[in-house]
Amino acid sequence: MNLEPINSALSQLRVLRSSVGLVFETLGTGVRADHGEEGKEQKFLQELQELLNSVNANLKDFESCINDLTPSQTPLNLANSAYLSLETNLERQALYPHLVQSYKWHDKLHEYSTFASTLLQQNSLKRSYYTNTKRRRSLPSSHLATPQMVENLIGSIHYNNMNLKIARPFMTNAILHITIARVLRAAVILKGLLIEWVTVKGYEESLLDGVDEQWTESRHQVFRKVQDHAHSAMLHFFSPTLPELAIRSFITWFRSYVTLFADPCKKCGKHLHNTLPPTWRDLRTLEPFHEECKQ
Predict the structure, then answer these.
(1) Under DSSP, is residue 280 helix (H, G, I), strand (E, B) or coil?
(2) Read out DSSP for 228-261?
(3) Are 161 and 251 in contact (CB under 8 A)?
(4) Residue 258: phi, psi to the nearest 5?
(5) CA-based nearest residue to 226, from 153, 157, 289
(6) Which are the contacts of 26, defined by CB distance < 8 A and separation ≥ 6?
(7) How far is it, in rounded angstroms, from Cα 248 to Cα 157?
(8) Beta strands 162-170; 173-180: pairing state
(9) How far is CA 116 from CA 35, 106, 122, in A?
(10) Helix, strand, coil content of the chain in percent (nearest 5)
(11) Positive or negative, the Cα torsion across 5, 7, 12, 13?
């Protein structure tokens, strides 16, 4: 069906309605101030005559457009909307404008969807519902290390005046017993290559007698302070990607307590402060400090 004559007729109808509206607007306004004082009625009539001539010309153009229209050979199917013309109830007759508005909305939706389809065909989206064969390398988990890996790591660490021994009272998870000269002992509870807890006691205190001894604190305040500092160092050296380096760094730092009762504080130069030796070791330089002097 050729829609060009229909569009032309509708356009001409809008022009005709606009010209008729100007005529009624001029009649409603009457003589205006811009017509002047002299001959204002004559000017008003002349303007009205021009508008009427314009309406007459537009009407002829509209009639010619109507004559160019050819009636459809097939009957127009209005579906259920055809029954609206038979309705006598004024409230139901008001449904027709809503149907026209709905038709315009659907027509605009069809137009926009056509534009969107054209654009999407020109720029096709590359999507795949299949997983890519190249997957991201999973990060190593320090708590999933095998017992052999733990044995090899601890066996490769050697320091003077330090003894390392591994016990496995829990079958899989290991407990690393550290003895530093005749100064102190420590139990490092491991889960794979992850340090979970550190217990520090004096050299003469029991640490290897039972499992409960691995968790009880020392009866001496100095070793309880060292245990608190060991927990801070444990968290400082923790590395999820380099667990071996974390354990080596912690053991190197902990070995600096071999001079717990020998070296003075690097800041105040004293051996004792509040009846305690320098219990803190710098995490980078391993220098001894009192807890109050490390700030």
Answers:
(1) strand
(2) HHHHHHHHHH--SS-HHHHHHHHHHHHHGGGGTT
(3) no
(4) -65, -25
(5) 289
(6) 47, 48, 51
(7) 7
(8) antiparallel
(9) 54, 15, 10
(10) 50, 15, 35
(11) positive
Q: What angle do CA 248, 254, 257 make, to 5 degrees?
A: 150
Cα angle value 287/290/295 (rounded, 5°): 85
Can you read off the two tokens belonging to residue 127? Answer: 């999507």
Three-state DSSP class for 138?
Answer: coil
- Residue written as tokens 């457009």? 65
d(CA 115, CA 217): 76
Q: For the chain, what is the total number of helices (H) and then of strands (E)?
A: 7, 6
pLDDT in tens, the chain (295 residues): 567 888 888 898 899 999 999 989 888 888 777 777 787 888 888 888 999 999 999 999 889 888 888 776 666 666 666 666 665 566 666 676 777 788 888 888 888 888 888 887 776 655 555 555 566 666 566 667 888 999 999 999 999 999 999 988 877 788 999 999 999 999 999 988 999 999 999 999 988 666 677 888 999 999 999 999 999 999 999 988 889 999 999 999 999 999 999 999 999 999 999 999 999 999 999 999 999 998 7
pTM of the full structure: 0.53
**What is the residue extent of each domain of the chain?**
1-70, 142-289
